[in-house]
Amino acid sequence: MKPSKKLLSWFAIAGVAWGAGFVYNVNMGGEAYWLKRLYANKVAIAAETTQPKLIVTGGSGAHYTIDSDLLTKELGMPVVNLGIDGPVGLDVILPSVLDTVEPGDVVLLIPEYLILRQQEDDIQDGFGSKSGMFSVAIGQPGLGGVPPKQLALETLQLGIPSLRWSVKSVVDLTEEGRLTGYYDGPLTERGDPIETKQRAGEWWPLGIKEPASPHALARIEQFREEVEAKGGALILSIPWVYGNVEDERTLENVQKTADAFAEIAPTIVDSETLNVQATPDLFADTHYHLTPEGREVRSQQLAEQLKPLLGEP
Amino acid sequence: MNFSEFSFWWVLALTSIPFFTVRYLGKVFDWWRDRFDTVGLAALSLLLFLNASSTSFAVFLFEILFNYFMVSLMLRREAEGNKKQAKLIATAVIIFDVVVLAYFKYLTFFIEDFIGLAVPVPANWESGFPLPVFQTIPPGVSFYTFQMVAFVVDSYTARRKKPIKLLDYINFVSFFPQIVAGPIERRSQLLPQIQDFKFRFTAENFDIGMRWLSLGMFMKFVLGDNIAPYITAGMGETSNPWLIWFYAFLFTLRIYFDFGGYSFMAVGIARIVGVKLILNFLAPYTSQSINEFWRRWHVSLSTWFRDYVFIPLMGKRKKWAAFFLFITFTLSGFWHGAAWNFMIWGAYHGALLLLLRYAGRPFSRVTNKFVRKPQIVSWALTFGSVILGCLFFMELDIERLMAKLQTIATPWAYSPARFVEAIATFNTPDGLVLGVALALAIIFLAMEHIAVWQERPEYDLFISGWMPKVLLVLTVLLAANIPSEFIYFEF
After folding, report:
1. Residue B439, number of CB atoms within 10 A of its CB
2. pLDDT over threshold 70, residue A121
3. Which of B429, B386, B356, B359 is nearest to B248 (CA)?
4. Residue B336 bears catalytic tag
5. Are A235 and A107 in contact (CB under 8 A)?
6. B204 interaction partners in chain A (CB closer than 8 Å)
7. Burial B286-298 (b: 16+ CB within 10 A, else e)
8. ipTM of the complex model
9. What is the pLDDT of residues B221-233, one digit of tens each?
10. B206, A162: Cβ pair inside 8 Å?
11. Are B194 and B232 in contact (CB under 8 A)?
């Protein structure tokens, strides 16, 4: 073989293998594919929904916590669930939602503490472990200013299906005849998940170790300005969480977050519980995700809190 | 460098792309000088080290300069005929290097576990200690210290006492593919390739380098990293002997794929820039005796201990060879980490070597009589001994180690019910992933056996023909998405 061909063959082989992995991850059955599909479906629902509408967004702590039909009925305005996934990161979630905002719309942001805190390791504040992957998968690489190093790493990883996911896919195809993922379930016509996943392991109350970071607060303030510039309005909510109600630091951090939110935009939170729930009875598989019954209770509460802000129907 | 950290590749790309673009243009317009390659390699190596750890970088830089100037002084004294002073300087430098290593690596162990055995040590002794106390070891210190020490000795004993340039010494000690975890290179092997260094990018070097890199990546990212999470999950198991053995077996596989993979990646990257590093592993799990195992496992460390510890310790006292062998292995164990378990591991291997020395032949005579293929028995005993050794190596918690040893030494603990329980632990989707990883690992080891049996170079089947490209494809498709740390980085 000619030296140049020898050299090129390595790049060709690596490129083809990576390309195949990319197609699997983004277009077939990888994590990126399910997130992309979830987002695309929700954006399509938002586009079809008449305005003015209420857009509920955040991570999976928004996706799995509301009953949009109930909210629609209570508020008298169409509601769209645009909750995505916490690890996508606040700085990517917010601009990804912005395109769906139209004049008269109200955006209700319910961010989990996970996406409000200062990040550790190599990840910059405002981003999560899926920021780059999500931005590439939805065709907007670098959305929200994903740092180049993180974007490069996650783009590279998009071409690596991994042994774990490859084996899982083979099992899925054998047992169910289709590929599956965490966000593979069907949505209601308002974007709520129909399926509920139940926790298999033990529960423990979550401690909130820090209030919202300065970066998160600044980004939310910028988001309010962006929403207002499009003729919409922003409302913030403290998320429901199964947390440690005995832990003073947890309650203090939630209170600080609520106070900081209130300086940015109207903020809704139960003043007695601070939305920290003492038992996991209404929670599904994580400390944020709710059972259908929990979503009803939460949505009823949200409706009561939102009515004075939106004006009675 | 930590090849499993994206940061390494990122900094490598960010520095290499502009550097080699300028180099290319310089060559085209004929203003590039060979000297720039030497400077470029030093800058690249130091920058990558700085990126890996800024605190270690300061220590490293100081050690480089100190060693270089002292070795230069030593060579000058020798040239002047002052051999006594030269020897004194060499001794002082070696002691200094070892003290630095001991300070970073063994201080806490020495005070808490060693002095603590004799007198009670207050819990907050660090606050009253006159020097800063480090909880983690600076990356690479164990490896580059050994390379520096070997350089001092080799320079002192070399026939031709030619002084070397500072830049060449920097490149010799800090050559980025091997600085943090070896192979520990010798002056005679690496220095001639590094002196007045020029990048030798050729299609052949690239091709051979990629073959080793593909092998290393497959071992590390596919085999080692996919096995690693199961070991972490099973570390706490102390009551089921089947599981204790199984996790020790997994660790035995993982440590080889992890460190062997790293070493071959180093060989591959070095080869791409035109440097041939030694092979640190030679299919160690094909060994049919513990002697052979140590000729195949972490070759650069084994030969380092042989040449710079065992032989000088023994001197002319050949009668005491067995004793010094045992001491050398115990020290080698201690090199791996400041903890009792590593010393036990080293002593265990020393004891195995002595056992083989004194009982090997009588044992062979018996097995040869009754077994048709005694080499299979030898291999199984060797591999079993290595697995048991890994139990010492993997377990830092001495109490838990004792509990595990007690369980595996209890015959009635090996009940069928416990066996079923052990199987049930892996009867999950995760267990299937482990099953596939193990199947790949066993195929890999079988291919090493075939190569050794066919008397081919140990990794010939993996680096010949289309196989390296298959390994590259498998790495891209099956690499673990959360790479685990290189085990030897902790040493």
Report:
1. 10
2. no
3. B386
4. yes
5. yes
6. 3, 6
7. bbbbbebbbebbb
8. 0.86
9. 999 999 999 998 8
10. no
11. no
